[in-house]
Amino acid sequence: MVSYDLNYRESLWKGIGGKQKAQDVNRELVSAVDVLFGNEEDFSTTLGIVIEGVSNDFTHLPVSSYESMLHQVAGLYPNLKLIATTLRTAHTATRNDWGAIALYEGKTIHVPQRPLEILDRVGGGDSFASGLIYGLLAAKDAEWAVQCGVAHGALAMTTPGDTSMATLPEVEAVMRGSSARISR
What does the pLDDT look like over 126-144, one tens digit per residue? Predict the structure, then answer.
């Protein structure tokens, strides 16, 4: 199984064709993967799929709009087994609401946002992806995998740096509803 994170960075593309070149390359790559990650901006910039109904400051994130976007991607790329995106509303630099939505075999999996106190936001999306991938590799169902990704991403953002220090028992505790504060 091959996973891919759209993760668009303008500075990497501007010297070789910009947004259009990024779309050309990413459209080809996505046709060869099984699991796809990205946020709303990544889907728009790298694949040309616009999400409707999201406010410019991302304070309003209608789940139905995200679900529609995921279905659009699935329609264009039938090879994809799972498509996932985080839902992040940043109220302040240290206070975010955090959740996710995914599409697996035509079924929407939604982990509602919940408040999160952030220490270092960098790496939250990557930790979401790695937690979800762990769930798939551990032969858990897709819903468990998405919940694992959300919990792992939350824990990663409560520690400094972009590398998670969370243990599996800590991730599972957050999945059961515990606080996303790591005990050290």
Answer: 999 999 999 999 999 999 9
Q: Report yes or no: 51 and 61 within 8 Å, Cβ to Cβ.
A: no
Kindly give the parts of the chain with pLDDT less than 70. Answer: 55, 57-59, 180-184
- The helix/strand/coil state of 90 is strand
Domain coordinates in residue numbering, the chain: 3-175
> What distance in Å separates the CA atoms of residue 64 and residue 9, rounded to the nearest whole number?
27
Q: Which DSSP category does 49 fall into?
A: P
Q: What's the predicted TM-score (pTM) here?
A: 0.90
CATH class of the 3-175 domain in this structure: alpha beta
DSSP letter for each residue of 107-158: EEEEEEEEEEE-S--TTHHHHHHHHHHHHHHTT--HHHHHHHHHHHHHHHTT
